[in-house]
Amino acid sequence: MTDVDPKAVTLKSIIGSYAFSTFLPCGLSTCHTPHGRGYLVTTGDGRETNIGKDCGKKYFSVDFESMARTFDRELRAQERREAIIAFQHKIQGIETRLAELRSGEHGAYWVQRNVYQLTNGRDGIPQSVAHVLHGLVRRRNGAITVDRPATPDEIERMRAQGQRAQHGLTIVTDTVGQLDGVSALYAGNDVHELLFGRGKSIETIKGVDVGKLKDSELRQMSKWIEDIEPLLARSENWIAAGRRLLTRANIQQLVQFAQDEKERRAMRAFISLLPE
């Protein structure tokens, strides 16, 4: 790069930027300090050189700061446009992947329908069972528990350990089971929107003219694009959890919470439709 005396030239434009792990000596004759980050610039007399970002501010003041802000903004916008265009070429594959997740055997639609039935006490599912499941969701834990009065022996042991315990008033919580796949009960709204929404974000990006997007739209779309792969992975994990949850042996653990024979029959009918 050309050696430039900042006192003898004016700054014309910024044409590039750099960020290297190996530092590059500054092109200003008054500096020459190696910098890891900086800009490629042109001067009023037609020369090109590199200057560190702090040197630009020091020697060219407001002109440099204004040019740097404009350059950085335009660079970010261009990078976002390129990312959106690249994503547009991937949309068909993503839509195919989503269709497979939704409609495959024991896919997202199947999981959603059965989870909704369980947690909302629909189609004969006892409210008592739905209540137990809501408790698991609140605790973020699949441990199935029941409360009961402490036995006389337990009361005595508690008192021997210095605990306050009274017959008929002290409650003990027993773990009577472990529900697998409980995370299927609390999938985030973003997963539901991707799997069961109308695909608004994908459809918007698919048909957009990238060159006409405002900075705010570029920001929003590029952020969504960055999130899509992690969101797809979370969706796959949610479906996998639903498949672990919705097995006969797993849901059979909940029958004990049915209040009468009618409710037990309803649970058995639901369980009979689940895979082994």
Sheet bearing the most strands, described? 3 strands, antiparallel
Q: Strand order, biggest sheet? A: 1-2-3
Element-by-element helix/strand order: EEEHHHHEHEHHHHH
| Number of self-contained structural domains | 2
In whole angstroms, the N-to-C terminal distance is 71 Å
- As a whole number of angstroms, the C-alpha radius of gyration is 32 Å
User: How would you state the average pLDDT, rounded?
Assistant: 90
Portion of residues in beta strands equals: 15-25%
**Count of helical regions:** 10
Write the layout of secondary structure elements.
Elements: E1 11-25, E2 34-43, E3 48-52, H1 53-88, H2 91-103, H3 108-119, H4 127-139, E4 143-149, H5 152-160, E5 171-178, H6 189-196, H7 200-207, H8 215-245, H9 248-252, H10 261-272
Antiparallel strand pairs: 1-2, 2-3, 4-5
Key traits:
10 helices, single chain, 276 residues, 2 domains, alpha+beta, 16% strand, three-stranded antiparallel beta sheet, two-stranded antiparallel sheet
Brief sketch in words of this structure:
With 276 residues, this protein is of the alpha+beta class. Helix content is 53%, strand content 16%.
Structure description:
- The strands form two sheets. The protein has a three-stranded antiparallel beta sheet, with helices on one face. A two-stranded antiparallel sheet has the order 4-5.
- 53% of the residues lie in helices and 16% in strands.
- It is of the alpha+beta class and 276 residues long.
- The chain folds into two domains: 11-75, no CATH class; 91-142 and 179-272, no CATH class.
- The chain has helices at residues 53-88, 91-103, 108-119, 127-139, 152-160, 189-196, 200-207, 215-245, 248-252, 261-272; strands at residues 11-25, 34-43, 48-52, 143-149, 171-178.
- Strand 2 and strand 3 (48-52) form a beta hairpin.
